[in-house]
């Protein structure tokens, strides 16, 4: 079963200085943090902020290619968690046929934002990942990260800038 989630925020892990995308279950308070690379975080941040550069970024190019080939991005699915690495699948439709493409979650999320398509996470991924029931009950890896997540307010979840 797949659970629909939304991007709740983008921030920096204070202990590693790596960007984190926070996904939130649309029907509960559960949060799923996914650590991403700097370039992917920038692409996600730019789309969240509706900023654009002078030339198309890679994820803009990918969306333009799908559109140019008469395809439609249907959804992305964070499909697996193996050896502390998340995996994703981008689902597209072309000429009435469903096409699945393997992707890194960060790239899939950046593409989903541009295509305004839904984001899903496999229920098994949520069971095995360090899903945070809510910030007040966060069970993060380190006490420092746990304290940081517990102290987040709504104003913090949108302030990450690249």
TrEMBL record:
Protein name as annotated: BFN domain-containing protein
Top-level taxon: Bacteria
Native species: Acidobacterium capsulatum (strain ATCC 51196 / DSM 11244 / BCRC 80197 / JCM 7670 / NBRC 15755 / NCIMB 13165 / 161)
One of the record's GO molecular function terms: nuclease activity
Domain BFN: 2-133
UniProt-listed Pfam families: BFN_dom
């Amino acid at each position: 079963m797949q659970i629909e989630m939304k991007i709740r925020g983008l921030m920096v892990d204070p202990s590693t200085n790596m960007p984190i995308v926070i996904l939130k279950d649309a029907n509960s308070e559960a949060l799923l943090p996914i650590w991403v690379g700097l370039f992917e975080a920038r692409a996600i941040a730019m789309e969240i902020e509706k900023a654009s550069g002078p030339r198309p970024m890679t994820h803009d190019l990918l969306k333009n290619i799908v559109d140019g080939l008469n395809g439609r991005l249907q959804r992305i699915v964070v499909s697996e968690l193996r050896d502390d690495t998340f995996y994703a699948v981008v689902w597209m439709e072309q000429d009435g046929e469903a096409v699945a493409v393997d992707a890194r979650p960060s790239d899939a999320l950046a593409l989903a934002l541009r295509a305004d398509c839904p984001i899903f996470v496999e229920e098994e991924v949520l069971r095995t990942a360090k899903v945070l029931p809510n910030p007040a009950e966060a069970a993060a890896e380190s006490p420092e990260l746990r304290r940081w997540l517990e102290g987040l307010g709504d104003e913090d979840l949108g302030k990450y800038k690249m």
